[in-house]
Specification:
The protein has 477 residues and is α+β, with helices and mostly antiparallel strands. The protein has helices at 2-6, 8-61, 63-77, 109-116, 157-208, 223-277, 282-318, 330-347, 367-383, 443-453; strands at 82-88, 93-96, 121-130, 133-144, 148-155, 326-329, 351-356, 362-365, 390-398, 404-411, 457-463, 467-475. A five-stranded antiparallel β-sheet has the order 2-1-5-4-3, sandwiched between helices. It binds adenosine-5'-diphosphate (ADP).
Length: 477
Amino acid sequence: MNKFFRSFTFRLTLWYALIFCFSAWIAFAVFYFLIDAELQKRTDEALRNQVEEIERIYQLQGIDTAVSIARLQAEATGERRSFFRMFYRTGVVFASANLARWKQVTVNQTAIRALLAGKRHFLETQQLAGSNGTCQIRVIYRRLGQEIVLQWGLCLDQEQALLASFRRVFLAVMALVLAGALAVGGFMARRAMSGVERIGKTARRITEKDLNSRVPVGRRADEIDELAITINQMLDRIQSLVTNIRHMTDNIAHDLRSPITRIRGVAEVTLERAAKMGPERHQDVLEEFAGMAADTIEECDRLLDMIATMLAISRTESGIEPLKRRPVDMAVMVEQACEIFKPVAEDCSVQLVLRVAEAPCVVQGDARMLQRMVANLLDNALKYTSAGGQVEVSLAVGGKKQDMVVLSVSDTGCGIEACHLPHIFERFYRGDQSRATTGSGLGLSLALAVARAHGGRIEVESEPGKGSTFRVFLPSA
Ligand code: ADP
């Protein structure tokens, strides 16, 4: 229950009902005051007409006729509804209606003074206490000639009754409006929040069970549907990240397990052999252990190398370690790399060809990282090309606006199957054919990270059995 009162649906309903009722109340108040003002205007007009008629009669036929007509008219209106008094300016009353009910109604001296000062008439409202509560009396004062003042009063009980019944009706209507506003507001709020609830439910299901569920998207293309689409896109991204992390963890575990198993195996075999040899073959035992130590160092170096490459990729991708940028002549760098790899190429009987464009190929970058990128591409090309093949390295200016330095490493090697092609830049990803070769599946990841950190990209074309071409595009300085 407490949860319901804190819910957005409840607050929305309450706000809706409050705003609706407040608007209705404002409309009523305006209407009420307009009616009140109109009723008073009409009463005042009726009173003015009344006293003007008596004044006319007084002027035409004298005071006696005026008094009898006033009495007749007061009786005709009703003794409980209206009365009159006629008095001299000294205050002495000389004629009146039946004042049994009106004794409390006083003569306002301010009115008398205002009339004597020249005002044509004076209007005021007095309260009259009765058995049924107080009643409002509207009173008008008018001068008849120089000496006489006419006071005429009209009880406003009919008008007050009308306003009272109007108020009662309003309260009843307001109660209905409040109930209606709560019902309609509740319905609308629940409808508006149903989409959010739907999303919340799916999100809970995803947290509890699997990442495959998606928020159902409606056909209205409203804000809720847009939110659902955004959440689904976010889930897609999270799922792909989780899958990547899972693959990477599997790969790391696999790639770490092999060298560690090897180290363990070598250690075990060495121990067994040493035990069999006995203390008399002391020298042989020492040699066995020395061999084991050398193997361990080699494996550890490989492991350390792999870990260092992983760290280099992470740092380059995240930008934690800023690149030490300076102008690097790629032509010089590629030539040096080819020099270094020439003996390897010769060992595998692969022809290494270098073509460098005339135009200057300078990039603003980190020479050490760019060297590692070039070395990885060359190493791969030679590694996956069998004897008699060719690796061609070329450097040129390219791109749509001729603002890129394009390094292309092309080989006539085994090529890459289409199913592997989208994954070769992933960390630890290794194609089937590469299982026989040394490597950790990190070379291309590092190359791509370096190219991206320099604002560039790597494209690859490959045909299984015919060869591959890797093209690195780097913005020229
Ligand atoms: P590895 O250590 O396995 O070479 P890389 O990240 O350098 O790791 O390459 C990833 C995978 O891409 C390799 O395992 C291989 O299958 C494929 N590959 C990369 N370069 C070539 C190439 N020049 N020819 C054929 N396959 C390649």
